[in-house]
Amino acid sequence: MGSEVLAHKKVLVIDDDRVDRLMVRELLSSHGFLVPEAQSEEEACRVLAEGGVDCVLLDYNIPGTDAIGLLSRLVADKVPVVMLTGEGNEAVAVETMKQGAQDYINKGRLTEESLVRAVRGSIKTVELRRELERHQEELANVNEQLKEKLEQLETINGDLRAFVHLAAHDFREPLQIMHNYCDLLDRALNQGKSESAQSFLEAIRRGAKRLAHLVDGLRTLTKIDHSNLVQEELDLKRLVEEVVQELDVQIRERALQIEIAELPRVRGQKALIEELYRNLLANALKYGRPSGPFLLRLTAEVIQNEWVLGVWNNGSSIPKSEAEKIFQPFFRLLEHREIEGTGIGLTMCKKIVERHGGRIWLDVPEREVAHFLFTINGTPERG
Amino acid sequence: MTTRPIVLVDDNGDALRLADFVFQEAGLRARHVLLQSGSELLTYLERALADGEGLPCCILLDISMPDMNGIDVLSLVRQRECFKELRIIMLTNSNDSDDRERALAAGADGYQVKPFGLTEFIEFIRQLEGDFRAEA
How far apart are CA A263 and CA A241, in angstroms? Predict the structure, then answer.
């Protein structure tokens, strides 16, 4: 079985003694080995340079050749070497083994069996060693990847903890208020004060509505995180027009004038990109309070070979100093406290953009103007 | 008898209306002032100082507020030498040890999880007034 596996392996014999070379060649050839020969280091180097040598039989005693030097070079190249030594040279043989030779054969006692066994054994050992090194390398790679994954998990875990902390906090507030208003309602009903009861009921309804908004927001957020991203080529112009159509009633109510720039085709998940535009438009409608005409622009320009898309509106009261904070979950501006909102919409936008490998930021080019800008891996090629 | 008011700062309108009821129900002798943000509190304090009408006997300050949270407001108030002795109790929705430590480190005199239930709330306010009387 072994001979079949090792058949056609190339074994280079380096020996200045022609008879010895011939003998070795005869013996190995009969076992299917290819046996090129070299009688000097120079010749050996030529054969080795051609490549494909699986094992070297190296005579220790070639005049003018530094056998140990040649051995160490072969060992460094991971070529298995079997030393051929003369009678009574056991000390030398042991030394060459220390230098990395796989085996040695005393020429005086050379038999077909010992020769073939030494060659096969050496080739096998070096092959196994190579395989081991390959596995070790793979293992090191896998370890490295595991380490990276672990670090990512730790970050996600930290984010999640912070998020749950914020969520728990935001859920408890309406619950506490509702609970206390229930107590108030109870008293008002007992005392027959129906007018007060009505206003307490309103407060309870507002709390319930706020909780419902929070739950919806959280559900959408987790959906963005866990659903598979199925990207397709999107005609952004058509997509945006559909979103604008959806918000038609509010747009007309607020007399919002919309300008749409020439928008590109981008790759993305349709539902998510729609959600992104829906959120940014709804945001502008909700928080834009201009003194004059209410304007909204859907912008697109190529910056450093990348599409930068945007939603611009006037009448905004977001101060420049809050530009980063507004993407944090549950963050709300003081000016907006009487406006219904959960502080989740922009966090959702950030998640959508990041899932597409892009980034989002807020530019405040002038007072009372908000320009939300984002990238979603779009290649600059107008569609 | 003290006329120094007790001040509550909370961004949530429903929470303020609720507190208004609780203060009345608790039979507080001190008047109470309801404010909706940290900047309103700072303006109020500066004016009280300038008018000589007397600083509040106690400030109940909600931690979770938009823009400037309660702990930031607390730090700002404490920066003024004349406000160092003001009695400020932080109100919060969660009994979080980190929040508590941050509040106390920033100079809070107390830390109170918002009472769940009207009876508890009224009891908390009564106790608070009892504390001022004992001190007076």
Answer: 11
